[in-house]
Prior knowledge:
- This protein is α+β, with helices and mostly antiparallel strands.
- 28% of the residues lie in helices and 26% in strands.
- The protein has 7 helices and 15 strands.
Amino acid sequence: xxxxxxxxxxxxxxxxxxxxxxxxxxxxxxxxxxxxxxxxxxxxxxxxxxxxxxxxxxxxxxxxxxxxxxxxxxxxxxxxxxxxxxxxxxxxxxxxxxxxxxxxxxxxxxxxxxxxxxxxxxxxxxxxxxxxxxxxxxxxxxxxxxxxxxxxxxxxxxxxxxxxxxxxxxxxxxxxxxxxxxxxxxxxxxxxxxxxxxxxxxxxxxxxxxxxxxxxxxxxxxxxxxxxxxxxxxxxxxxxxxxxxxxxxxxxxxxxxxxxxxxxxxxxxxxxxxxxxxxxxxxxxxxxx
Length: 289
């Protein structure tokens, strides 16, 4: 069995930053982003890995960036190891298929979430009548029901603690009216394009998170996009509104922990190898042919 890549160590090269899933190295003025096989659940890095996950996330991100390139540029310079400068290009065994060189940008501290179906946090808020951060929705909707039209529900990325859902007024205070409108319209267009692409492959994109940055005042798509870490993905033939959905994203692991009564404040509990194998297989199933 393959061993998950949990940390990236390039001989003689210091680590610049370690995120939730990605390890980052400085390459001159640019950054080399390497996606590991770490697993991030309930806003915590869980002590288990999924072998091959980093390559799947990298492939899906690059696919999505290419899919929407006419709508917005992205921050990737190259994903080819041989195009990296020395000494990075001497380590294809570490970097190939799970890394890309990026421009250094100023990230906008937002998660731009678009939801096409009523699920997760949005369903709980709708069900419980706490809709302060949700756009207006009709009454009588069911869990997992497709919305009349996709909705934009941004969240502020806090450096410590959980992210903070924002209503429209909160968003405009944070980034200004003009930028808020730009981010909303762009996020909705990207979601539409992505949904159409997923549908061709037999999947529903229930919701997705997008992140943006600025480089010389130009808006760029950054981080990741269209992956099972930042999207809810359901198989069309398995979709049944009104109930919890079978999933092809990280919910498959979070659902297990939730059903086991686990809390992020608790010590980690083992995740069955059979479930990890199912997650690995489903993630690979998402790859475009």
